[in-house]
Amino acid sequence: MMMQTTPQPHTQTLPSTVDTAMPGSILVNVGGALVLILMIIAVFAWLARRTGFARNHPKSNQILSVVASHSLGQRERVVVIDMNDKRVLLGVTPGQISCLATFDKTPDEGATQVVSASVDFQSTLMNLLKKRKTEPAE
């Protein structure tokens, strides 16, 4: 008995676009792109925070606005805020906020309510203290 062999169809192998020599190469490519995108987002967020992008756009219906701020230590600050027709000097620590002084806001100060973040704190505080000294005692 003679066995007849049927011819096997010839199968072609198509070249793959994925490198099969390194099984994790797709994961490395996708992971690398994801890390790159996250780093770009982090850089833009840091720049926005550093330049004060969100703080420089005051809303028209704000009751409080920070005029100036100065760091006194690692976690202590002195802050001057506008509140309605008053300026308030606050001492801010991690445990509490203390009102150090209250000043009346003059009409010309109300017109310049939008103040840049680069205002010199020392000159603002000195101007407030000079105005307070010149006011008659009540």
From TrEMBL:
Cellular localisation: Cell membrane; Bacterial flagellum basal body
Coiled-coil regions listed: none
Keywords, in A-Z order: Bacterial flagellum, Cell membrane, Cell projection, Cilium, Flagellum, Membrane, Transmembrane, Transmembrane helix
Residue spans crossing the bilayer: 26-48
Family membership: Belongs to the FliO/MopB family.
PANTHER family noted in UniProt: FLAGELLAR PROTEIN FLIO
Name by which UniProt lists this protein: Flagellar protein
Originating species: Rahnella variigena
Taxonomic placement: Bacteria, Pseudomonadati, Pseudomonadota, Gammaproteobacteria, Enterobacterales
Gene that specifies this protein: fliO
